[in-house]
Structure prediction request, 942 residues.
Amino acid sequence: MALSDSFKTLRLDSIGRAFGAMQALHNFSLEIKRGEFIALLGPSGCGKSTALNCISGLLPTTSGSIWLDDKRIDTLAVEDRGFGMVFQNYALFPHMTVRANIGFGLKMRGVPKEAREKRVDEAIRTVRLESQAHKLPGQLSGGQQQRVAIARAIAIDPPLVLMDEPLSNLDAKLRLEMRQEIRRIHQSLGSVTIYVTHDQDEALSLADRIVVLRDGMIRQVGTPEELYKRPASLDVAAFMGFRNRLSGQNAQMVGQHDVRFSACGVALQGVAMAPNLSGSVVAAIRPDDLVPVAAGEGLAASVEAIEYRGHDYFGVARATDSTELFFRSTAPLATGLSIALGAEPSKILVYPGETP
Amino acid sequence: MTDTHADSHPRRSITLNATFAKLWVITIWTLLIFFVINLFGIIGAVLTSSFATRWLRSWMPDGLTFKWYFSAWSEFQLGDVLITTFQVVGAVVVLSGLIGVPAAYAMARREFPFKKLVMLIFLLPLLVPPVTYGIPLATVLYQTGFGGTLVGVILANLVPTVPFVILVMIPFVEQIDPRIESAARVFGAGTFRLFVTVLVPLLMPGVLAALLLVLVRTIAMFELTFLTAGPTSQTLVVALYYAVFAAGVRAVQSIDAMAVIYMVLTMIWLVIALRFVNPTQIVTRGKQARG
Amino acid sequence: MSDASIPLSVRLKAQGLDGVTLLVLPAALLLLALFVYPFSYGFILSFRPKDGSWLGNYTKFFSDPFLHDTIKTTLAIALPVTIMNLLAAIPVAFRVRLMRHQRLITTVLVLPITLGTVLVAEGMLNYFGPQGWFIRTLTLLGLGSASSIKLVHNYWGVFLSLVITGFPFTFLLTLSYVSGIDVALENAAATLGARAAARFRLIFLPLLAPGLAITFCLSFVQAYSVFPSAVLLGAPAGPTRVISIAAYEAAFEQYDYSLASAIAMIMGFTQLAVVIVVLMSRNLFYRGPAAGAKG
Prediction:
């Protein structure tokens, strides 16, 4: 029987999963409110799929606990948790029709046939797949199979829907379409969705909160805006698209939030991402924020390549200390040209430490 | 980990699931171990008996000796039998490779009329058991004068091995991107050079695997050789059969000594083969081209 | 360009016929000569018996109990063995596919197949014989004795040998089919609430049905053609007189090649009949593609 679906919080308490000596997931703690869309974001091997599998019960945890309100659920077998799960390759039962696939969870729960058929119809309507109801998965396109997988997961009215990179096997156009579908379905259900992805754009557009993982540990939890504008650490910044990482020296705090430092012989100012920065620092700047400025007002560099992007130009330059710099330009620049690159202080994020 | 809350729903905990799974694993292992123990018992009995001075009504033999090996060698003319076996197996391996590999290449690279029919001809000898087609085959061989000769035995053994090589090699050839061959041609390689410098190196692992499997299977191939061999063209397995069949006449220990020699011969090649192939491929005839 | 002047070789190549295609010829010719021809020859020969009439061999076979009983005898051995091997192989393969020591298990199980029926027969005569270790152990454990349990020179000897050489074959085939089913399907079923038994019944069995049918057919065909075991470990004069023995005797003891061919044909057709029945009945269980998850 499904767990109560009027829960308020899902609490993950220091979940850990070890494979022998290797700790795939470490100290994963998160509190999620009903209605939230959470994205687990990170590169391959960061532990996001492990976390998802631990929550679903497919992988037992080696430490920690999972609570639905005040009920402990990590001791339950996967068959009893009642969570809906959408797999990366959909895992549709190839020998069952779309209707049979979607109704499978309800059948396992002993829902009588009439009620079952009604709920299957509802699920099919939600994912807009009415015309394909009697087909076999092999006769459907990738996008349609995706919808069946989603319908199957939501038909059981789960308090929690887990999605493991469901869009990664679709082409770009379909991916954008399905993104909107997923968001819409989530909102119509009103329960919790936990969505695993390595695609930054997906996470930013879909999630209420994003959890960035690396090497099995949570590096930052925040809203998409927080993560985009203020990544908490250098590796999160790198993952979120801050491709420029400059080593700076002689850092000195200016007030509580800003810091002045020198890089490539030029004095720069940026936002301090850690308290009381001094000495060696690393400055992170998005390529789109780094633009050519008047000589002497920015880092001296020579242009190596320039790419037309339609709307503007994307450039690669080499600074005087051999750092590669990625910048944006509104006009084409000749290779070999010496330019100065700069950015607004609010767009320069300064982190402690040596170059990564 | 088993601390839970009070709950009215009858749910199963993870630990109960895990316990069931563990019990099941233990059952499976027990059955497998039982099977394996008896298997080793059978092999061990033969081995022990071959070294036994006398072994009539006791757990272990009265004493141990090597003499049976020598007597078996001369009694069963094992020297000649082994030479025959090597000749047959060697010829079969070489011929099935020479005939089968090019055929597999053609089947993998070309679509032609009646291809399905040809594939059926290649498939049938592997589906029909040797005894069923062996009897008509032996009949024909005897009527054409090949019956009872070494050539006849070799020909008979080619029937299952050529299709086997073809079926194992087709997936291997298909795995090689045909564009590699096109690239070679673009750079000026004629067919022969293409074959020698591009195809052979790429196909070598597959060919090796297939031929090793043919070797192991032919050593153990009983029915076909039995039906087509004459007294001077018997392979070891057939000679062993006759020895066991007429067991009343000779000492069991010398028969077992012969059996051990057969076992060692098979095992050596099996061990070598297993370095290159997955054990499953001996059985599934290359249906799963998995390493 | 007009196509009247396209050379023959190019037109043939468009059909797929060129030098490379000819590489098929040696193999095809070999098998035509050594497989297809003998079979057809044997087929025709079976209709030219010694007594001159057309169906002489077949009437002789079906009127002489010594001959036609062999079908029953062989089926009585082959069918139970195959069913038992398959029923044992399924759960074992199921579990083994998840194990880490898979390769060790498959290597050990390949041994009886490699050693072959003759060696296994010789070993069994010793090991399962009245003085052998197996019976001695049973006696020691109080589970039986040489007088109450007889495992050689009878039906059970043949049965056991077919299990020992047949189970690994059936198991390895089943394992490869079971391994072909995506683990994600099982996981999906589990998240939807299906316990192990339900997953087996509703997901695995339907998807395995085609492969199991093929495994059954291949295993049955092997068991049905049992020969050396039936002679060495059985009682070839009576209870384990299988059809291959009858064929062999006709060819090499009576030198009646015509009758031998007839018996071989009957043997082939019986096997074919069982195979067809099995393949048709599996369609009752499952319709639809046997492929994995994604189309």
Remarks:
- Chain A is about 25% helix and 35% strand.
